[in-house]
Structure formats: structure tokens, C-alpha cells
Design goal:
This protein is α/β, with parallel strands linked by helices and 141 residues long. Helix content is 25%, strand content 27%. It has a seven-stranded mixed beta sheet with strand order 1-7-6-2-5-4-3, covered by helices on one side. It is globular and about 40 Å long.
Length: 141
């Protein structure tokens, strides 16, 4: 499916809808350029899961767990992963194949670890359509 949003609130709301429909064991792979709205979508996703605490991108910690929602959310930001073996140190398998839901920002950097049935989300800008315009493609739902 392809969605078009025209501001952070619409991107947040799409994330919230996806989070409300998320099921245990799903892995969402989120890609797009810097500043495109990956974390905003994730914040909405977390709210859709019923998570109340603030959600920020775990750029320096790589993984941030949120366990106070309908399902646990394992939020990865693998932008700073230098070597795929760093994922072993975090216990990625327990998250990807556990009872929660995973959101992986910059997932293309760890492609070989991603489950075959992962849900792919690509967020793209188009300056010709306006500064706040986003085209969001969701595949695998």
C-alpha cells in the first residue's frame, strides 16, 4: 500500500494506525533518508500500541525497549552499526523472534538478519510536492 502524508501529524497518525493493528512477532523494517520521519512514524506506532512513555530514536544505544503497551516494542536504530556482529551483542534474535513487535530504523544495513516475512516501510520525500510531503510505501502486511 502507498500512503501520502502532508505533515508530521499525518505521518504520526499512520504510525498509530499500524501500531493499533500490530501483532506479536512482527518485524517492521523502516527505511528512508535522514529527517524523513522514521522516528515520527515510530512514535505514532508506539502510541497505537498503548505505550505512554516518550519514544526517541535509539541512535547511540541501538535498541530501546518499551514494555508498557499492549505488546512490547523493541525499537532499533541500526544507523551506527559498523559490523553486523554488533547485533549479536544486543540479542537481536530474542527481539525478532519474541512475543513483542520490532521497529527497525535503517533496516537495510542489517538486511541479512531480517526475517523473510518482515514488513517493509519506505518513507520518501518529494520537494516538488512540498516540504512536508511524504510518500510512505508499506509492503508485507
Amino acid at each position: 500500500m502507498v500512503y501520502e502524508t502532508n505533515g508530521w501529524q499525518e505521518t504520526f497518525d499512520l504510525g498509530k494506525k499500524l501500531g493499533a493493528e500490530a501483532k506479536a512477532g512482527q518485524v517492521y523494517c523502516l527505511d528512508g533518508d535522514l529527517g524523513v520521519g522514521k522516528t515520527v512514524l515510530t512514535q505514532g506506532f508506539a502510541e497505537g500500541l498503548g505505550i505512554k512513555e516518550p519514544v526517541n530514536s535509539p541512535t547511540f544505544t541501538i535498541l530501546q525497549p518499551y514494555e508498557d503497551g499492549r505488546l512490547p516494542l523493541w525499537h532499533f536504530d541500526v544507523y551506527r552499526i559498523g559490523d553486523i556482529s554488533e547485533m549479536d551483542e544486543i540479542g537481536w534474535e530474542d527481539c525478532f523472534y519474541g512475543e513483542g513487535v520490532c521497529m527497525v530504523e535503517w533496516s537495510s544495513r542489517i538486511e541479512e538478519l531480517l526475517p523473510e516475512n518482515a514488513i517493509r516501510i519506505l518513507i520518501e520525500k518529494n520537494p516538488e510536492r512540498g516540504f512536508d510531503y511524504r510518500r510512505i510505501r508499506v509492503e508485507g502486511l
